Amino acid sequence: MRDKWEKGDPVNLSDLLKITPVANEIVRLGQELNMKYSDIMWIVTEII
Asked: How far is CA 19 from CA 3, 14, 37, in A?
């Protein structure tokens, strides 16, 4: 198993730009609903 903090593969900028709006929305929902991000992600996976 790789070390969690070990340097990983480089991130493609276009991939980063695709996930940034999703991450921003998760952060916004977490703050607005006073929920942990892991709880929001759990809800999303249940919906998907």
From this structure: 23, 9, 15
Per the prediction, the chain carries an average pLDDT of 85
Q: What's the CA gap between 14 and 32, in Å, rounded?
A: 28
| Closest to 25 (Cα-Cα) out of 46, 48, 41, 45 | 41
Q: Could you tell me if residue 1 is inside a domain?
A: no
Calpha distance 31→37 (Å, rounded): 9
Number of independent structural domains in the chain:
1
Structural domain harbouring 42: 13-47
Residue 35 lies in a domain: yes
What pTM does this model have? 0.58
pLDDT of residue 34: 94
